[in-house]
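Quick start: read one record
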Amino acid sequence: AWPKPGSNIMRDELTAAMKAAMRAQDKARLGTIRLVLAAIKDRDLAILNKSGDSCADTCRIADDEIAQILATMIKQRRESIAMYRKAGREDQAAAEEAEAAILAGFLPQQLSAEDLDQLLGYRRRLGQQSPSRGPHRTVDPVGHVDDPVPGGGTE
């Protein structure tokens, strides 16, 4: 369910959500999305500075890195919530919870425990096939294909 490496769908979704929040005058959502976009821009600039002007138009982080940024920001919010609650600052904790919920809305949906069990059961069934059949392709839970011989053929 994580984004494919190299894609920029999440960046486009964040930009569209920022525009929608501006139109709706939703200041909390707009502020949170702007923080995410600023973090993305910082990472883009870091890549540009490392590589020089050779990729001035193409130096943009991909969706998998944007998902990592979002996950880090959510983790920071959860840590802040715990600290605010410990200090008796429920108003601040509620604000952090709202931001964490907004951020989580942009992450790909996680697999449920039931879906994961189904995938693992499928993987186990593949592994129990007779070795006398020779090499066969297997697919792990995240969709990576394991070919025993490059190209998917037999030796």
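The first helix runs from residue 9 to 24.
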